[in-house]
Specification:
- With 72 residues, this protein is mainly beta.
- It has a single domain, classed as Beta-grasp domain (Ubiquitin-like (UB roll)).
- Helices cover 10% and strands 35% of the residues.
- The chain has one helix and five strands, in the order E-E-H-E-E-E.
- A five-stranded mixed sheet has the order 2-1-5-3-4, with no helix packed on it.
- Strand 1 and strand 2 form a beta hairpin.
- The radius of gyration is 13 Å and the shape is elongated.
């Protein structure tokens, strides 16, 4: 693939280049993130996990993935 088919996004403060038409679900799978133990924020808005496969990423999107940690 050439650069025309790529976009740059920011994930937890780090730049990442992904394919055009890349979804949040694709990103979660690429990062091997356990979906039931995280919250996902796209451009400062929480994303419903049921809609991850319908949310296509755009150039310069900012994604924060926050892991839940239990304690007592």
């Amino acid at each position: 693939m050439n650069k025309k088919n790529k976009i740059k996004i920011v994930v937890n403060g780090k730049f990442l280049t992904v394919n055009l038409k890349f979804t949040l679900k694709n990103l979660v799978e690429k990062l091997k993130t356990p979906i039931n133990k995280v919250a996902i924020e796209l451009n400062e808005e929480i994303v419903d996990k049921k809609k991850l496969n319908k949310v296509f990423l755009k150039n310069k999107d900012k994604i924060e993935i926050v892991h839940f940690i239990g304690g007592g």
